[in-house]
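Second attempt. The first submission of NAD(P)H dehydrogenase (quinone) had a stray character pasted in from the spreadsheet, which I only caught after the job came back as garbage. Lesson logged: always re-copy from the clean sequence file. Corrected sequence (199 aa) follows.
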Amino acid sequence: MEAAVVRGPPLINVAAVCGSLRKGSYNRGLLRAAMEISKESVKGLNIEYVDISPLPFLNTDLEVDGTYPSEVEAFREKIQQADCYLFASPEYNYSVTGPLKNAVDWASRPPNVWADKAAAIVSAGGSFGGGRSQYHLRQSGVYLDLHFINKPEFFLNAFEKPAKFDSEGNLLDAAAKERLKEVLLSLQRFALRLRGESE
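This time the job returned cleanly.
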């Protein structure tokens, strides 16, 4: 008699994109924490950080015969291969950062590689925790056919005491880590639903 095969949950691959290029960015720290949490306590979720710093400014003159610069092609391929996305979006002037908008725009060039995928947004910042940037990113998502989870929302005031991050931008706050885990679980469920699968 053959032993029963015990299968784990279906694997969901997440592309993690940070809107800040700063080495000690708190938002980058949120993504590092999410990667650690997924390895420790969210089975079936694999998060890969996708660096947007090599991308040139969007310029359609760089598109030649339907191809893009090598850095753009590599970025678009990672976005296309992912099952869903985790954005860490700081707020600059009530909106998303220039580098993040640039990355979103490059991946939206024909064919749009964001389409029909699940996504979540987290942010850290001042009193509103970067929340206004999230609303602008959600607006872009409507046109891109990008499906953001609605709840839980994650905004973190990075400057409240006690300290939420260490001097290198690593997340310290246990309550924030628990909230981050809930975001990951919600994203996983939604991504599986969009793929027509269950946990």
